[in-house]
Amino acid sequence: MNAIHTVLSAALIGASFGAIAHEGEDHNKKNAGPVKKEQKQWGIAGDAKDVERTIEITMGDNMRFSPGKIEVKQGETVNFVVTNSGKLMHELVIGTKKDLDEHAALMVKFPNMEHDEPYQAHVAAGKTGNLIWNFNRAGNFDFACLIAGHYQAGMAGKITVAGSSAADTAPAKSSGHGTHKH
Ligand SMILES: [Cu+2]
Questions:
Q1: How many A from CA of 88 to the centre of ligand 1?
Q2: In degrees, to the nearest 5, what angle opens at C-alpha 47 toward C-alphas 82 and 151?
Q3: What is the distance in A from the centroid of ligand 1 to the CA of 156?
């Protein structure tokens, strides 16, 4: 029997649980380091200096975003100011329907999974967070709260990025069909 060892292990486990819980609650954007910029189908991380538009979105415990539909123009850098009016944690994650579906399924399996991507804002109850995103690709995208159960309850919205009429980077095949990749 090694009672001392047991006590020590318990103390260590307790300590690390404490750290995890604290980190979870304090998961804010405020001192996020340099954002890694990676081109996604739905755009790329934006810079504060390029913000042309601010869109305010409220997230509630009714599992809805308000507004639930957003229209932007290709090339626009948007500052999403996201307020959580509820008593639960909520988040706004931008993506394609397919990505969000997959991510949501993972979140149900691993509810405490931590992730911090430039296309998401994780906002505690009663707080306001933000994310800056450059919609440099046209198309129809989604945004969602991927906290386990929320997406499944319908906490999602639509983003339409209208292609710029002027000649642009992407060879426009504006046939009205979404991009289908399988
Ligand atoms: Cu939520």
A1: 7
A2: 35
A3: 9
Distance 138 CA to ligand 1 centre (A): 26
Residue 40 C-alpha to ligand 1 middle, in angstroms?
23
Residue 66 Cα to ligand 1 midpoint, Å, equals: 12
Average pLDDT across the chain, whole number: 81
Q: Are 82 and 57 in contact (CB under 8 A)?
A: yes
Q: First vs last Cα of the chain: how many Å apart?
A: 58
CB 29 within 8 A of CB 60: no
Q: What is the 12 CA–ligand 1 centroid distance (Å)? A: 32
112 CA to centre of ligand 1 in angstroms:
14
Angle (CA) 72 77 78, round 5°: 70
Quote the pTM value: 0.72
pLDDT at 49 over 60: yes
pLDDT digits (tens, 9 = 90+) for 126-174: 999 999 999 999 999 999 999 999 999 999 999 999 998 654 444 444 4
The token pair at 10 is: 């318990």
Write the CB contacts of 144 (distance below 8 Å, at least 6 apart in sequence): 92, 93, 95, 100, 104, 150, 151, 155, 156, 157
